[in-house]
Predict the structure.
Amino acid sequence: MHIQNQVFLGDSKEELKKIPSDSVDLIVTSPPYADQRKKTYGGISPDEYVQWFLPVSNQLLRVLKPTGTFVLNIKEKVTNGERNTYVIELILEMKRQGWLWTEEFIWYKKNCYPGKWPNRFRDSWERLLQFNKSRSFHMYQEEVMVPMGDWKKTRLKNLSDTDKTRDDSKVGSGFGKNISNWVYRDKAYPTNVLHLATECNNKNHSATFPESLPSWFIRLFTKEYDVVLDPFMGSGTTLFAAKKLKRHAIGIDIVPEYYHQVMNELQFEESYLFEEKSTYEKSSDK
C-alpha cells in the first residue's frame, strides 16, 4: 500500500473542517504555549488560551475515530513567580467538551539547558496528556516494551516462596505482584515517564520536539497504514515519524514557511487521503 500525506496551510480550526469525521487514528501535537512563538503564532495570552484552543479540540474530537487517541504536548508557563493554571483549566473544559482524560505521560528532558531562577529550579519535563473519545481504544503495548535490565540477573536468580505467589501489598492498597511471572521474560512494559533528549538539530522552527517522541506514541497507538494527524505540525516532526513507520500522515500549519518546508522535505506527491476536498463540516455540528 502506498503511504499518503496531506498537508494544509491555514488556521487549524478551519482547515480541520476539510477532514472527514471519525477518520483519524492518532493525533499527536504540540501547540504554541501561552505567550510564546509571538512572531509565528501570535503569542496567545494565558487568559485567552483555553477559549482559543477549544474550537480546535472540538474539531479534533470530530475527526478522531472512536478507537483513536489524542496526545497533547503542553506545559504551563510561570507568570509573576507562580505557575499559570491554563493547562488545568483546558483539561477541565475538554472533559466538558466530551473528551476522556485517560492518562498523563511525562517527557523527561535528559539534556535540558542549565539555568538559575530566584524562586524555582530549571524545567526538565513536559506533559503529554492522553485524551480519548471512548474507554475502548486501540493500544499496542507490546510495541513499546523495554529490556528488563541488569537487575533481572540478581533479583530473579533466587526467588522466595512469596515471590512465586501473588504477594498483596503490605499497606492494604489492593495491589499485588508475582515476581516469578518475569523469570523468562527479556522485556517489560514501560512506565509513563519517557526519558528522551530534546531536539538538538536546527530545523528552522522555534520549538521542535525530538522525532522519538511522536514515534513512541505512533507505535503505541497505531498500526501500519493508520492515519496520524498533527494540527500544529511546525517543522513536520510528527509527519516524518509517521512516514518512517509506514503510517499515513496529515499536517496543518498557519505559517507558510513551515508549510513549504514540510512539503519539500516530504517530497510531496499529489496523493491525498481524502479526495472530497470541497466537503466542509460546520463547527456547530459537534
